[in-house]
Amino acid sequence: MRSAPLLDHKTSISAVSASADGAAYVLRPDGTTKRRPVYGRSEEIVRGKLTELQANSDQGIPADATGWTVERYLTVWLAQTVKPNRQPNTYVTYEKAVRIYLVPGLGKKRLNRLTGADVRQFIRRTESTCRCCARGVDKARPEGEQRCCAVGRCCRRLPSKRQVQVVHAVLRNALQAAVREELIRRNVAKLVQVSTPRYGVDRGLTVEQAHQLLDAAAGDRLYALLVLALFLGMRRGELLGLQWSDLDTDRETLTVRHTLLRVGGELRLCPPKTEDSERTLPVTPECRPATCSRRRSGLRSNRTTCAASGCRYAVRSGAGRRVPAAAGSKSPELVFQEIFAHLAVYTAGCGS
């Protein structure tokens, strides 16, 4: 038997036996309206739900996005929010966390029905699941070369505490963006705590050790890099991204404007990650001879590199393969063309 409709002509309620259902046209996150069914054990419960939905719509608050899965939302969030607005390395880190952990673990769940319990169980599973078993690393090896999980001897390659923390942080950031876009009402990832990794205290080099390092590196092509690292405390990417235009010899200052990153096998000169990282540092008396010597030797090595390669800018891979730059591209005049050996990537730029 169908009861009388509510005052809103777009709303109706029906009651059959001990259950009731109704529907109302509600505001959606994309600004459109859509008929939303509501169910309950009694007509009174259904009326209360419909009243809440309509009140929220009247105030411009959209209903939860019921058609979104976690996988669908994370894919859109990475493409439209993270990739255009974050550093390339940050996007790579987020994409890996989404692809390897979040989509397999939570991807099929409805975004608006995700609960704190779901996130808590996911985190616990992630902490205790062998990544070799989950990703089939050993199973993908040729049959004669399988040595652990595929032959019944689990290697127990569990994610580190830091990795679990990163996965939780990515999920928390994604859900917070969904809250701002009014796709969901609250961020359930904030209800779950993860253990924080503890690191040993690294006190760095002593003064005596620093002197020994500089004495041993005297005459090496990376001597100026070590001097700036020790006296100015610059990061590796900041040192490798230095250009001669960043050095003001009149004011005796050095400005950090770029950082050199390796993203997807490519070297990219990017702005610093934070505003505080873009700074001007004084060139101390200990740094001046090293930078001057570096410029003189750099110009000579650049001309040699150009004569050998026949191109304006070249990148060497870890295997020693020379990859010429794209035609018409112009390389920055990097202060340090050679990158640390453990990066397995070497750069060479041409001086004027």
Give a brief outline of the structure.
Mean pLDDT is 75; it is low at 1-12, 299-332 and 337-352.
Reported for the largest beta sheet, the result is:
3 strands, antiparallel
Distance separating the two termini: 88 Å
Total DSSP E strands? 11
Give start-end ranges of low-pLDDT stretches: 1-12, 299-332, 337-352
Label the overall shape.
Answer: elongated
Measured as a percent range, the helix fraction is 25-40%
Number of helices: 10
- Strands of the widest sheet, in order across it, are 1-2-3
Rounded mean pLDDT score: 75
Radius of gyration: 29 Å
Structural class: alpha+beta
| Strand/helix succession | EEEHHHHHHHHHEEEEEHEEE
Residue fraction in strands: 5-15%
